[in-house]
């Protein structure tokens, strides 16, 4: 589970709201985190492995969007491993973790483990948020023909740079000047929570806008491809729209509980005594959403692979061979099969116009195929019959 409360718990003089949730059935909570993260980890890897029965095809190169989708899955896998390791230590060595609450001590390993594991989880999921934002940006730029594989370097710089910068800045402000005084004032905690939830809120607010603009641009591309907007083009545009909707749906399901839980805990922190009877329902809601976070946060990795690629099946092919990667473009091989040279008796101006038209059509097809790549849930018969997948 990824929450800024993990770093706050490393403070010996932690606030009452953090103490409430972190001390609520810790063995059960850590067991839930281990179970959910393990299931998600195994299913995510299963989704990404090559499957038997897939016909190998020679693919020229992957797109920047497909690389981003793979990096999102990698961030989820590594974040899930961090959750499993952290929760396992908490369950297996309760005495080791109990030393975190001791203010005057000489053993710094419990605090080092607490801070290091919390930062690892927070950094990986924060990087996943930034990669998801980059995916929305890249999808829009691809349709506008302003992106390509070269832009992946800029995405790496932005994603890892911002993720590390915000994580280090938030942790430094929280633990300044030392762990023993990190919860003595609100000025320590507020910047940490802002730097943690900033990329999450960015995805929730900006990604739907970018996805909506991308879908509108796709419709314009499909209309301009043949000058008409047939049922096949409409279905292809709807398929891309549904894919974006599933991505945002998974994100909202997995992280809305974090926002609700944090709002409830902040409300409790503002009360003189959080153990008062009128606050019983709020305390119960905070504890329920805390457990829900332990289930849903680690499941993001597997649910995202379903949104990206659909269910790829159980039949894993572990034999190495050159084959099609499911997130690569679908149209390039079709372009190679259906494109023929112009007859030699064509006039040069006709040949040039054909060449320009072919190049423009190929760019349009590649832009559309990048947005629908890896999607195995759609009607293959419909998409293959579309002019986007036919020769010109």
From TrEMBL:
Its main location: membrane. Residues 344-392 are annotated as: Disordered. This is G-protein coupled receptor 143. Receptor for tyrosine, L-DOPA and dopamine. After binding to L-DOPA, stimulates Ca(2+) influx into the cytoplasm, increases secretion of the neurotrophic factor SERPINF1 and relocalizes beta arrestin at the plasma membrane; this ligand-dependent signaling occurs through a G(q)-mediated pathway in melanocytic cells. Its activity is mediated by G proteins which activate the phosphoinositide signaling pathway. Also plays a role as an intracellular G protein-coupled receptor involved in melanosome biogenesis, organization and transport. GO terms for molecular function: dopamine binding; L-DOPA binding; L-DOPA receptor activity; L-tyrosine binding. One of its GO terms (biological process) is melanosome organization. It comes from the Eukaryota. Interacts with heterotrimeric G(i) proteins. Interacts with ARRB1 and ARRB2. Interacts with MLANA. It is a multi-pass membrane protein. The keyword Mitochondrion does not apply. The lineage of its organism: Eukaryota, Metazoa, Chordata, Craniata, Vertebrata. The chain crosses the membrane at residues 28-49, 69-89, 109-133, 153-178, 190-211, 244-267, 287-311. Residues 358-377 have a biased composition (Polar residues). One of its GO terms (cellular component) is melanosome membrane. Belongs to the G-protein coupled receptor OA family. It is found in: Apical cell membrane; Lysosome membrane; Melanosome membrane. Gene3D superfamilies: Rhodopsin 7-helix transmembrane proteins. Keywords: Cell membrane, G-protein coupled receptor, Glycoprotein, Lysosome, Membrane, Receptor, Transducer, Transmembrane, Transmembrane helix.
């Amino acid at each position: 589970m990824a929450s800024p409360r993990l770093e706050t718990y490393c403070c010996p003089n932690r606030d009452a709201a953090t103490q409430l949730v972190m001390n609520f059935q810790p063995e059960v909570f850590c067991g839930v985190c281990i179970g959910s993260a393990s299931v998600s980890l195994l299913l995510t890897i299963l989704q990404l492995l090559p499957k038997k029965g897939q016909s190998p095809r020679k693919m020229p190169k992957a797109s920047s969007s497909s690389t981003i989708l793979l990096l999102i899955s990698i961030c989820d896998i590594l974040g899930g491993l961090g959750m499993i390791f952290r929760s396992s230590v908490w369950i297996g060595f309760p005495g080791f973790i109990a030393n975190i609450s001791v203010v005057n001590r000489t053993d710094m390993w419990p605090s080092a483990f607490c801070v290091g594991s919390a930062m690892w989880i927070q950094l990986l999921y924060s990087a996943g948020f930034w990669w998801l934002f980059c995916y929305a940006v890249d999808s829009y730029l691809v349709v506008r023909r302003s992106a390509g594989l070269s832009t992946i370097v800029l995405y790496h710089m932005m994603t890892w740079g911002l993720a590390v910068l915000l994580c280090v800045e938030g942790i430094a402000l929280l633990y300044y000047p030392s762990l023993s005084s990190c919860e003595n004032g609100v000025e320590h905690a507020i910047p940490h929570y802002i730097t943690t939830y900033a990329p999450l809120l960015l995805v929730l607010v900006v990604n739907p806008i970018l996805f909506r603009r991308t879908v509108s641009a796709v419709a314009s591309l499909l209309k301009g491809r043949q000058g008409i907007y047939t049922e096949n083009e409409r279905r292809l545009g709807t398929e891309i729209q549904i894919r974006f909707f599933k991505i945002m749906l998974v994100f909202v399901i997995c992280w809305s509980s974090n926002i609700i839980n944090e709002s409830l805990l902040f409300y409790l922190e503002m009360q003189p005594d959080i153990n008062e009877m009128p606050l019983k329902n709020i305390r119960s809601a905070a504890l329920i959403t805390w457990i829900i976070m332990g289930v849903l946060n680690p499941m993001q990795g597997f649910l995202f692979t379903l949104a990206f690629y659909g269910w790829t099946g159980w039949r894993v092919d572990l034999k190495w061979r050159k084959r099609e990667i499911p997130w690569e473009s679908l149209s390039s091989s079709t372009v190679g099969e259906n494109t023929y040279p112009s007859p030699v008796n064509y006039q040069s101006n006709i040949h040039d116009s054909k060449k320009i038209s072919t190049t423009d059509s190929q760019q349009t097809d590649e832009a559309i195929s990048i947005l629908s790549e890896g999607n195995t849930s759609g009607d293959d018969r419909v998409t293959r019959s579309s002019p986007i997948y036919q020769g010109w």
